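Quiz preparation item.
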């Protein structure tokens, strides 16, 4: 049995991870999880996973009630609680489905302790890529991606000589607004930006998809996961999302991973440690009439400046990616609460990034400081604009 700690059980990836665990009760055992503020989900999860020993929630004030209702379970709270549930029960794998900077410290902690991490939290690698990779090395633990794009690349690259790979190509749906010109983005509503054409995701990542900042983050992730130089990572627009990623070989051959727009598949690949399995709840037989896969074109970084900002932050290195991420989180939250226009999201991020004095080779503490600085300055700009 693979003993699993699931961070972010209440989110889209977390809920789909539970689906996979429940489909293979003889293979996986959920021993701890976090749900943030969505404590109403605890009862339902415990009903199906009675071996859970520890739970982390966001707010401390609810703990007395939870401990009274579940005296056999250890409860923690806050960001420190995420570390404590990992420390409390040394599982075989931590599935990190958290959203945002909060996912960095648990990732590093798990890897250093020799616990494999299935990573859906983009920000961990974006903000602290060098620290994360060093933690995996020192702990001799596996870091397995969950993002569909990076799972696709992982599958493709495993079967090729590295010397034969010329570049990797991340595909991007473009979100709900890819057909809009820059001048049309000024009046985009929240509902328009949240209507993703091919994926069902949480609000934050859906907005990141519309700006294509999520693809910028994936460039940074791919750089660290596959040790790929920045100039060998391309992004192509692919609105139907049938091709999850591609690699180009030195002889010009393109190899692609093509399949369902369903996150259960990459999640299962990560949980089974890079093995393909049949998912009993998925019914899929590809039909040539529905696979219009070759709808591809290059992405304009003038139309999607978030890509250029991500490349710039990675090139600067140090604390720059942390500032990129922190400013983006505030910009997206400001748009979602109605205080920032959609077309100003990238401008706000660029302004904060340009004002930052980069610290090279930062520690975790210095990344936390950079993140706080970025959020403070981004929030001030959002309020002023």
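Solution:
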């Amino acid at each position: 049995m693979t003993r699993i700690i699931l961070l972010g059980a209440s989110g889209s990836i977390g809920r789909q991870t539970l689906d996979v665990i429940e489909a293979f009760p003889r293979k996986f055992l959920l021993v701890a999880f976090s749900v943030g503020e969505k404590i109403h989900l605890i009862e339902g999860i415990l009903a199906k996973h009675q071996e859970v020993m520890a739970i982390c929630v966001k707010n401390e004030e609810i703990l007395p009630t939870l401990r009274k209702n579940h005296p056999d379970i250890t409860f923690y709270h806050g960001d420190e609680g995420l570390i404590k549930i990992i420390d409390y029960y040394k599982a075989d794998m931590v599935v990190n489905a958290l959203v945002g900077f909060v996912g960095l410290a648990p990732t590093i902690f798990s890897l250093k302790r020799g616990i494999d991490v299935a990573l859906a939290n983009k920000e961990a690698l974006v903000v602290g890529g060098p620290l994360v990779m060093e933690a995996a090395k020192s702990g001799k633990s596996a870091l397995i991606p969950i993002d569909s794009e990076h799972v696709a690349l992982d599958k493709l690259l495993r079967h090729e000589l590295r010397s034969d790979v010329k570049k990797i190509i991340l595909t991007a749906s473009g979100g709900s607004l890819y057909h809009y010109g820059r001048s049309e983005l000024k009046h985009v509503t929240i509902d328009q930006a949240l209507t993703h054409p091919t994926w069902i995701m949480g609000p934050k990542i859906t907005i990141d998809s519309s700006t294509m900042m999520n693809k910028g983050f994936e460039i940074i992730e791919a750089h660290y996961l596959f040790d790929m130089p920045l100039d060998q990572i391309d992004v192509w627009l692919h609105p139907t999302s049938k091709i999850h990623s591609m690699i180009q070989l030195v002889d010009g051959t393109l190899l692609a991973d093509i399949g369902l727009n369903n996150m259960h598949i990459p999640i299962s690949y990560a949980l089974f440690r890079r093995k393909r399995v049949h998912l009993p709840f998925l019914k899929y037989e590809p039909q040539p009439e529905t696979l219009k896969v070759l709808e591809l074109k290059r992405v304009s970084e003038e139309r999607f400046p978030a890509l250029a900002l991500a490349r710039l932050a990675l090139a600067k290195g140090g604390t720059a990616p942390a500032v990129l991420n922190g400013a983006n989180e505030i910009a997206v939250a400001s748009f979602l609460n109605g205080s920032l226009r959609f077309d100003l999201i990238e401008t706000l991020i660029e302004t904060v990034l340009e004002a930052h004095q980069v610290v090279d080779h930062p520690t975790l503490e210095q990344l936390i400081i950079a993140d706080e600085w970025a959020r403070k300055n981004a929030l001030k700009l959002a309020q002023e604009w």
